[in-house]
Amino acid sequence: MIDAQRASLADLLEDLSDDKWRQPSLCAGWTVRDVAAHLTLQQLGLADMIGMMGQWRGNLDRTIHYAACRRAAALSTGQIIAQIRGMIGSRRHNIGATHLETLTDILVHGQDIAIPLGRRHDMPPAAAAAAAGRVLSMRWPPPLPATRKVTGFRLTATDMPWAVGDGPGVQGPMSAILLICTGRLAELQQLSGEGVADLTARLSAPTPK
Description:
Blueprint: H1 2-14, H2 18-21, H3 32-38, H4 46-53, H5 60-74, H6 77-86, H7 99-114, H8 125-137, H9 145-149, E1 154-157, E2 163-164, E3 169-172, H10 174-181, H11 196-204
Parallel strand pairs: 1-3
Antiparallel strand pairs: 1-2
Helix pairs in contact: 1-6, 1-7, 3-5, 7-8, 8-10
């Protein structure tokens, strides 16, 4: 599934104009180009990771963003696409990560690129379920802020047998559930249930620093 997502995203990227590469993604402060460049960094070894940490920017999020922006500036669009395609078939992943983090990365960041551009980039429900399960069970690295915010709701997929949590119900496609678990609000309109209003307010509220 990781291979299929990489191939599909590379096809989408090849179809973009220069202007589209400069458009904002769903990640605040990240362009489409920045996100695509970030995805070329899914197979970092120990030396690569030490090098990135040598560019520390105060916290992990800023450091990752800085590395992505450096990568985006250093590579042409063709090189970014070629590097994403070049990982197809490889089972390497970043040191300290598993295939589930790699899967989550390609699934969610693929939507970060596609949704604001109005492009279709299918996310298979079973893959989204595997990624959501990993995100919701994560203890290290620390859970995402959005993961804590969905606690207290009963999340139920409408396109496959999957449900988790207790509390007011929120139902929707598995892809939309994965996106809210990772802090993306773009697919909230696909959700229904008694808990949607409260969940929307919780996700929209600023995260304490």
